[in-house]
User: Fold these one by one.
Assistant:
Number 1:
Amino acid sequence: MSEDFIAKYGDARLPRYTSYPTAPKFADDIAQSDYADWIARIGSSPASLYLHIPFCRSMCWYCGCHTTITERDQPILDYLDVLHKELELVSVAAARPLDVREIHFGGGTPTIIRPEEFASLMTSINDRFDVATNANVSVEIDPRTLSAAMAEALGASGVTRASLGVQSFDPVVQKAINRIQSEETTALAVGHLRENGVERINFDLIYGLPHQTVRSCVETVLASLAMRPDRFSVFGYAHIPSFKKHQRLIDEKVLPGAAARNEQAEAIAATLVSAGYVRIGLDHFALPEDDLARAAARGKLRRNFQGYTTDQCENLLGFGASSIGRLPQGYIQNEVPPGVYAKRVASGSLATAKGYRMTPEDRLRAHVIERLMCDFAADVSAISIFHGFHPDHLLTANDHLRSMADDGVVAVKDGVVVLNADHRFLVRAVASSFDAYLGEMRRTFSKAA
């Protein structure tokens, strides 16, 4: 990417578009009664479950998640009691056992809980929902805290995929982000998982961290390749200290600029592609036989709050503090502070704090943005007609898109928008051309490149 393009587009603060509208648009005019009604309308339509475990033993300074640091187990045990209760409340609201095809445990650190507690959660889910025998069950893991006993429990509970946080193996970078994690620790965790039948492994890497260089990024990838994960998620560090105050512990003076970040991203991509991984969307890579690569090849790739996914369910139910759900009617977010969340559920109410009711135009724009983020192309005219709008509805007077076309970032012909292959890291900037609400909340997001 040229310096001119980085200067013009790369420094813009833009969403990652894991949803549209994005979370800052959510408001408190969506009540728990609305959510209960939406759940009741799911019927026989397949659903996905997301369970949020918002606890860690220590804070990683780059973290952008909702999490609580605790050295004691009691707050976690109390939280799990509430989570079981919320599963019961949602199952009652559904009026019939929901057809569950996908389950994802996120955090924080989901494997901070004990093996028997994880098994109990899975039992609770299976008792209350109709979980498909071939359901995908995934869990996010901090390799530093994964025990052999927990790996055994994950395998016995039917976990099919594990996503391991790696970020960087450079000790200088690790010290600057307060996350010391050796290659040996990571390899041990991978070994424990595979020994217990959890064969599908993801690694999460981050570029743009303090003191990070192209060389250190490539060295991290090479060390990771020795463990041969099926997928890599490669994210640019989002430095928003006004939103996450612990990020103030990171020295901004040693953060790489937009040009350096782009060099790091491209070096990581080149190394992974040369090792046989398929580049998927903005920031994912997978072996050719992986489900994600196959979905991308068929044009069936989707995008949700976990990033790129093969999940085709239109119903995503979120459980736990701060979790977000998505249903055909719109989005729902639970109370964020664990204490407030617990009180709501203990009272017998769904934990709804806010949400967003989709309009027909929101659905149109969401469809276009998702295809751009997944395919780097979108037939805007055809999608508009599908949603009942004029083919030119989103293209007429779209000055931002026209500017990007003039610069050669995209080509627009017969209502089809296609990104130039050399500028795919600007896909968020292109997607933002179709975001009707961006100007209201731009400061909330990370830089586009």
Note: The first helix runs from residue 3 to 10.
Number 2:
Amino acid sequence: MTKPTGGEIVRERLLAEEVPYLVGIPRHEIVAMLDAFPTSQDQIKILQVRHEQSTVHLADGYYRVAAKPLSVFTSIGPGALNTAIGLGASYVDSTAVLVLSGETHA
């Protein structure tokens, strides 16, 4: 029995919570996690956007309409910082958003 990768663990948890979309900008810091998702494209879809801030606003709006959380992913540095405004809005209005942030390769 092989140990699951970090990406596979994240994928299985998101599937268990019935999260329908994973939203973000695929960059080198998060690609290792995203490698686990092609086998589950019929259950959880990856949506690519143009700016990290829009990922959180999209997730916030989706939760308000569908009452289901979305997960967003981001890179380190400016990408993670760009999610802060959307997270602030989500926090103030008590909406559910899960942000997964990448890390540099070591």
Note: The mean pLDDT is 87.
Number 3:
Amino acid sequence: MEPVKCPFCNPFADEIVARNDLCYARWDRYPVSKGHLLIMPFRHTPDLFSMTAEERLALLALIDECKAVIEENFRPAGYNIGFNIGKAAG
């Protein structure tokens, strides 16, 4: 049986909205709301808890850049920043 490919590993360059050395952001293919971005490390990790301290800092730093992208495209009234960890969390 062929292993399941991770939908987040090896993103296409045109999918990347913002990036730094360790993490990248892309528009969600199945957005909950307009402007829904996903931010994740380039290195495959199962969740936030398995990321290195440097990856977590890089992820948080990318939020500021993503806010500017969302503002430019959607001008939202507010933001919701969350982490889904585990299948039950979504």
Note: Strands lie at 16-19, 23-27, 37-41.
Number 4:
Amino acid sequence: MQNEERNLIPRTKMFAQRIIRLYVALPKNNAVAQVLGKQMLRAGTSVGANYREGNRARSKAEFIAKIGDCLKEADETLYWLELLLDENFLPAKRLQPLVAEADELVAIFTTISKRSRGDL
């Protein structure tokens, strides 16, 4: 495993923690915010869990599949964050750093996936 990929373990955990804190900050009295937040919470916390599983993969195919799951969940998290941003449930200043991090994670997992499959 490359060194920058190993650094994704704490990075994805920190991402999950930031997602949790964001969910807690959402308005409790707004049903739409809560639904979008729960979707974001589920997807955002599964990125790191899938990455940890991928690092324990028994085969290259299993690793590639788990990285694909990481990519899917990171991209889905990005979608929910964009909706929360578009609907102004929290200030853009609060959401933008997480949107940027989700976008970076999508790019990173895309690259890892392509490299693992031999597409790069």
Note: Helices lie at 3-6, 8-25, 31-55, 60-86, 92-117.
